[in-house]
Structures are given as structure tokens and as C-alpha cells.
Write a structure and sequence with these properties.
Blueprint: E1 5-14, E2 19-29, E3 32-38, H1 42-49, E4 58-61, E5 66-69, E6 71-76, H2 85-88, H3 93-109, E7 112-117, H4 123-130, E8 138-140, E9 145-147, E10 168-170, E11 175-178, H5 181-193, E12 199-202, H6 221-233, E13 238-244, H7 245-253, E14 258-264, H8 267-276, E15 279-281, H9 285-293, H10 301-304, H11 307-311, H12 314-324, E16 327-328, H13 345-353, H14 355-361, H15 364-369, E17 387-390, E18 408-413, E19 416-417
Parallel strand pairs: 1-4, 1-5, 6-7, 7-8, 9-11, 12-13, 13-14, 14-15, 15-16
Antiparallel strand pairs: 1-2, 2-3, 5-17, 10-11, 17-18, 18-19
Length: 423
């Protein structure tokens, strides 16, 4: 018989509505929310517990505390254990993975039960967090991101010798260099064959790479369309690193579904995204982290010089996306020791958009981006039992979701309480 878990007297944060429910009881079975009933409906609960399939469920009294769905971060790099990404690619694979373990554990203890990795994580890491081999969130891996020669994923120095026959080259732990329509089609197929749930491409210059100014465009439109076409053939989609309005418009025009960062968006680009149903995944916390700690942590000088060119416009981008009606999901994009700042993104979002929108970005909107809204991102019967019990109401004080999980009483992933959290 299935023992299950019965959570009593919880006030559910219904993320889609942005409101709290009256006290409810929830029965968890087989890792999912089986039934939700009002706490004062004792008769329904009694009949429910008398079903033959339910065997003396473990009971947890929430004592009127706020229960909310597990958080979702749609832009992480779990393998990025150090700031200098070029050197990261030289680490032995085993060492790179071992350094990932505390990063993953920190994420789930901060309440992130699901993450979308934007380059680096593979199917092996997904399996390891899924079957409990290692402690961490559910992972939606992108495999290695695709970059053109000299693009954001090309970490080679200008002095490096480039082999003339290298149509696809691994140059970093999180990316590979691929040029040409046919090579891109093959690369997308390879990453999907290896377990990628979505494809990441570099559609503009970036901060952490040495030779690509922010305004550079990544890939021709034919190359972007090839990636989108192959991803769509596999019932997947493309997410694109893109900063400038020009890069965003090209990507959306070619069918890209998710724009990462987007700091230099303008009204026209945002309107195009809204019309196409494309998502934005701003990652504003990483620019503060890079500016404040990047030099000390080994970020190259060329990257340090780029930070302010995108940092200052980040807050304005939230306003532009919101005004156009663009759906926004939560992202952090942190590197090395700055992973500890993951939850500080909530304060940045809430200061511009309000608490409810900041929470939705990491729950219901993020689940829609992942195409998992039927089982993640909110509390409803049939949903996966990823749950957080909080010490305060985040609709009134977003600080309860910040820090290292200090405002979280316990974390549940698929009906399993994470060891070390209070019950």
C-alpha cells in the first residue's frame, strides 16, 4: 500500500492567481498531489483516508504557514564552478562534475526544485538528480550551446591557431563552435540525441567571452532557422542568447521561442516577441555579481569591460517587456561562487514588477516556458508534489525567498522531503 503524506492546515499560494487560499489539506501520493480539500471539511478528508489505497499517511501540520510550488530557474549553468569559462573547459570531466554537486545542492535548498540549464549539463546529470544519486533540482539540459566561430561560446584567444577543418569544435564546457547550415542541423540532432530538452544558440555577442562585442550578431538567419527547424522536428525549441534589439528581432523572426537576457531590448523588439508568443528570460542578478566580484574571481579583463554596457539597461528591459505583454521567466545565469546569489533575482524583479509577478516568473510562467504547466508551477490536483513551506507570505515580503533558504521551513521534491530541512 502507498503510505503517502498528508499536509494539514496550509495556506496555498496560488501562483497563477497571485493570491492565498483559505486553509487546505493536501494528500500526496506517488510523488503527486492527489487531493486538495478545505481544512474544515473533515468528512471529505475522513472518507478520503478510508480508501484502501491509502495506508496511514504521514501527517505534517503546516500550522497556517504558506505553501507554494517549488521554484524554477530557467537560466543556470550548473557546471560553471568558476568565473573564467575558458579555463573551465580544460577541467577533467570528473572534476568538473564533482564541483557541480554543491552548486546543485545549494539550488534545491534555496527552493529551486527545477532548473533549465543553458549550456553544459547533460542527460547524465539529469538522471543523477532524478534518481536521487545526487541531491539537486530536476534538470532540463541543453547539452552544449551552439556558437559560431568568434561568437559568445568561442572561448579561444585571438592568438590560438584555428584548425581549418574544424566545423564543430568543443571550446568550452558549456558550448561548442559550429558553422554552416548543415553542420548546425547535425549538431542540433546530436545534442537532442544526447538528451537535450531544448537547444541553446548564441545570437549576439556576450560578456563572458573574449572576442565578441555585445552588438555582434551570432549566426546568419539561415543558420538560426536550421536550428529552429531541427528542434521543432524533435518537438523541442530554441533558446537564444541575445542582448540587442536587432539580435532579438532576428531571432524571433526565425522562430526562436526564448530570448535569454535581452537587456538592450526596445519597444519594437518586445512587441515582436509578444506577437510571436516568445518568452523573455532576464538574468539581472548576474551583472551585479560580475561587476562586484568578477575581477577578484578571475573574470578576464575583456569581459569586465563589457559589463556596464548591458548592466545599466537591465532594469529598463523589465519595464519594456512588461509594457509589451511579453511573458517573463526567472533566470539567474550565475558563475562560480556567485551561485549563492541566485535568489537575489527576486528582489530585483519585485522592485520593478511587484511581488506577484516576480513569483510567477519562477513558478507558473517558468512552467509554461518549459511546457510543463500541466504538472509544475502551481498547486493543483495531479501536479508533481514539488512544494515549499515558508516562514512568511512572499506576496507581502519577497525577502522570504531570498538568501540560502533561510525563509523556507522545508523543501519537498516529488513528494520527498529534502533531508536537512526542518519539518
Amino acid at each position: 500500500m502507498n503510505q503517502g503524506i498528508l499536509i494539514r492546515n496550509a495556506r496555498m499560494l496560488q501562483t497563477r492567481k497571485g493570491s492565498l487560499s483559505a486553509r487546505c489539506d493536501l494528500l500526496i501520493e506517488d510523488g503527486r498531489i492527489n487531493t486538495i480539500v478545505p481544512s474544515d471539511d473533515g468528512e471529505t478528508l475522513r472518507r478520503l483516508l478510508e480508501r484502501p489505497a491509502v495506508h496511514a499517511p504521514k501527517q505534517i501540520d503546516a500550522e497556517d504557514a504558506v505553501l507554494m510550488p517549488g521554484l524554477i530557474d530557467c537560466h543556470v549553468h550548473v557546471l560553471a564552478s568558476q568565473m573564467h569559462l575558458g579555463r573551465l573547459g580544460r577541467l577533467p570531466n570528473v572534476l568538473a562534475v564533482l564541483r557541480t554537486l554543491p552548486i546543485l545542492e545549494g539550488m534545491i535548498r534555496r527552493g529551486f526544485t527545477t532548473v533549465r540549464d543553458a549550456g553544459g549539463a547533460d542527460d547524465a546529470l539529469r538522471q543523477a538528480t532524478s534518481d536521487g544519486t545526487i541531491l539537486g533540482p530536476r534538470i532540463f539540459p541543453s547539452g552544449r550551446a551552439l556558437s559560431q566561430t568568434g561568437g559568445h561560446g568561442d572561448m579561444r584567444e585571438r592568438s590560438d591557431v584555428i584548425e581549418p577543418c574544424g566545423c564543430t569544435v568543443k571550446v568550452a564546457a558549456i558550448a561548442r563552435v559550429v558553422d554552416g547550415v548543415d553542420a548546425i542541423r547535425k549538431a542540433v540532432r546530436e545534442e537532442i540525441q544526447r538528451g537535450a530538452t531544448q537547444i541553446k544558440i548564441m545570437a549576439s555577442g556576450g560578456v563572458a567571452s573574449p572576442n565578441d562585442p555585445i552588438h555582434f550578431l551570432g549566426y546568419s538567419e539561415d543558420e538560426i532557422r536550421a536550428a529552429v527547424d531541427e528542434a521543432d522536428n524533435a518537438s523541442s525549441y530554441v533558446m537564444a542568447h541575445a542582448y540587442t534589439a536587432r539580435a532579438i528581432k532576428r531571432a524571433v523572426r526565425c522562430g526562436v521561442r526564448s530570448i535569454e537576457h535581452g537587456n538592450l531590448v526596445d519597444d519594437e523588439a518586445a512587441a515582436m516577441m509578444a506577437d510571436a508568443g516568445a518568452f523573455a528570460v532576464p538574468t539581472l542578478v548576474t551583472y551585479d555579481a560580475l561587476a562586484n566580484e568578477g575581477k577578484a574571481l578571475g573574470l578576464p579583463a575583456a569581459s569586465l569591460a563589457k559589463i556596464e554596457s548591458v548592466r545599466g539597461q537591465g532594469m529598463r528591459s523589465l519595464e519594456i517587456f512588461a509594457k509589451a505583454g511579453v511573458s517573463m521567466a526567472f533566470g539567474s545565469d550565475l558563475l562560480g561562487p556567485t551561485h549563492r546569489l541566485q535568489s537575489e533575482e527576486f528582489k530585483i524583479r519585485a522592485s520593478v514588477l511587484g511581488e506577484a509577478a516576480a513569483i510567477q516568473a519562477a513558478t507558473s510562467e517558468a512552467a509554461r516556458l518549459l511546457r510543463c504547466e500541466h504538472e509544475l508551477g502551481d498547486i493543483f490536483e495531479g501536479a508533481i508534489a514539488d512544494l515549499l513551506l515558508l516562514k512568511a507570505n512572499p506576496l507581502e515580503d519577497i525577502q522570504v525567498l531570498c538568501g540560502q533558504g533561510d525563509g523556507i521551513k522545508w523543501v519537498m521534491k516529488e513528494g520527498q522531503l529534502i533531508s536537512g530541512t526542518a519539518v
